[in-house]
Amino acid sequence: MAAERSTAGQLAAERVVVGPCTSWPENSAFIREVLDRIGDKWTVLVLSTLGDRALRYSDLQASIPGISQRMLTVTLKALERDGLVVRQAYAEMPPRVEYEVTELGRSLQRAVLQLSRWAAENHTTVAANRTANDQIGIGRARTRLDRPTG
Asked: Which of the listed residues 4, 17, 22, 39 has the most CB atoms within 10 Å of its CB?
């Protein structure tokens, strides 16, 4: 029994902790919040669409297929709060509101554009992999389903 405990203890001692999280402060909740914001699909699409020009709200919405008015509003407010986008309202009739990427937003935009390009270049391969996975069952989820019951 003692030999089993020491073996288990040795296995736990051999664990290797790696990755970017190892250099983060102990309380890294805010870093995860920022990653949640910049990893959101609508954030990626809004920043990619804005590019280096100011766009009206309606032009942004028309340029991003599938985004609802509510999600565009929520995303723009969050980006503005984080200092990634600036909102400019003009006192005209009808009222005009434009959004533009800030310098901080531009530094993120480069990475976001690379992600968008990667998705566009690889979407057919990912779709084929998903189809193959669904058909032949790659991974643990399919293995569990294939087990006989009873």
From this structure: 39
Question: Do residues 102 and 92 touch, judged by C-beta distance below 8 A?
Answer: no
- Count of residues for the chain? 150
Q: Could you read off the pLDDT of 64-121 as tens digits, one per residue? A: 999 999 999 999 999 999 999 999 999 888 888 999 999 999 999 988 888 888 989 9
| Phi, psi at 100, each rounded to 5° | -145, 150
> How far is it, in rounded angstroms, from Cα 1 to Cα 9?
12
Residue 119 CB: number of other CB atoms within 10 A?
Answer: 13
pLDDT digits (tens, 9 = 90+) for 23-34: 888 878 888 888
Terminal-residue alpha carbon distance, the chain: 34
Rg of the chain, C-alpha, whole Å = 23
